[in-house]
Amino acid sequence: MTELILLRHGQAVDKAPTHADADRDLTTRGEEQARAAGRALAALGLEPDVVLASPKIRAWRTATLACDVLAADPVEHLPLVGLDREEALLAAGLGERVMLVGHDPDLSQVVHDLTGARVRMRKGGVAILTLDGHRATLAALLRPAELERIGG
User: What are the boundaries of each domain within the chain?
Assistant: First the structure.
């Protein structure tokens, strides 16, 4: 079985006409959410073998901050912009525990497509799926507040 960890980027600065969407960075709160996700995953013993992150700044920074705690190095992965079921399954094949750091509504849709569950991924939230071939089970859906409690 493979575990697929989906981490939605933390809270980001608002869109501005002078900045491209891809250049939006995390707020201070978003940085805290990213670190909390990393601490919580470490506390739960869920260190990923592979971390793939969207190249958009808010997702990339979320990945790097979470990975500071997880002793992992994120790899930029363009297909995480517009992630779909097939790409998630391909990525899951890269290790026994793979973390994807990206965006909504893509991540919520992948959860639905793989498990049938309807979820709403919160900014800084985590979904953990267990995969057996092309079948998946939603093992956990953790909001940022829960991740903060778990990670201390």
Answer: 2-12+21-139
- Alpha helices for the chain (secondary structure H): 28-43, 57-70, 85-92, 106-115, 144-151
pTM confidence score? 0.95
- pLDDT per residue over 76-134, tens digit each? 999 888 899 999 999 999 999 999 999 999 999 999 999 999 999 999 999 999 999 87
Query: Cα dihedral angle (7, 59, 72, 112), rounded to 10 degrees?
Result: 30
Q: Which CATH number describes the domain made up of 2-12+21-139?
A: 3.40.50.1240
